[in-house]
Specification:
The chain has about 290 residues and is an alpha/beta fold. It has one domain (about 1-90, about 125-185, about 195-285). The chain has 13 helices and six strands. It has helices spanning about 1-10, 55-60, 75-85, 95-100, 100-115, 125-140, 150-160, 170-180, 180-195, 200-210, 215-230, 230-250, 275-280; strands at about 25-30, 35-40, 65, 165, 260-265, 285. The protein has a six-stranded mixed beta sheet with strand order 4-3-5-2-1-6, covered by helices on one side. α3 packs parallel to α8 (about 170-180), α5 (about 100-115) packs parallel to α9 (about 180-195) and α6 (about 125-140) runs parallel beside α9 (about 180-195). The relative contact order is 0.22.
Amino acid sequence: MRALLLAFLLLAAATSRADGALHSLWELHGRHNTVYLLGSIHVLRPRDYPLAKPVLDAYADANAVVMEINLGELDLDGLQQEMLASALLPDGKTLTQVMGSARYAHAASLAHELGFDLAAFDQFAPWFVAEAISQLQLAQLGFQAESGVEMFFLDKARADGKAVAGLETAHDQIALFEAMSLESQAEYLLSNLEEAHELPREIDEMVHAWAGGDTAWFRAHLQQELGRDPKLYQSVLGARNRKWLPKIEALLNDDKNYLIIVGTGHLVGEDNVIELLKRDGIAAKQR
């Protein structure tokens, strides 16, 4: 459960330019400092290292690291209780009832093909079931939350005595899924299961695109998600980008250098952080 909890909190991917000359790293300048904005793959395999030198150089130049959430301050016991409370369906409801008999039968068949028994999740909300199965699949493919970009830099920051902060809290991330209606959650679970057979291929493509700097790949996948459920896209990405914007801009008024690490979905696509900064007159140069 602890491994699933940490993996759940580490979603999305990283990106860089298709020409291979640049990386998933953007440089912003304040009057007296530099802020680096890094796109992240939150779960990686040990063999996906080392990271590119410009990324490591940006960390070396930063006085502090800012992540979506401060992983160094997580109370895993308390967070586990909160997640379980959020993930459990209300008394008297089951996943079968929420999904409806026909949709549940289809979902159960898809899950069985993947090697999972959907009956084991009957007390849990569909959003949690979708995330749990996805994370279990990733673990089977060798991806580890502890090998993700954030955990890599968290360990380095601790060793180097650099401060670590977060743009939001783990509670904020859990609340994103809690806010979904049960009907939306049911469709989300079914959609995930229908696409699950493609996950091994897509995850390899994702890492390859990340290593080769193919932003078009990520942008295309985000566009697919936007078309499937615009409201979910906005709540998971657009709304959070706008919420983070003043915090990121405030760092540009400091005299310290910062490395900000966020998932790629926040750096490409509609209402991404780079575009929002540009609208406020703040230029970001990709490195």
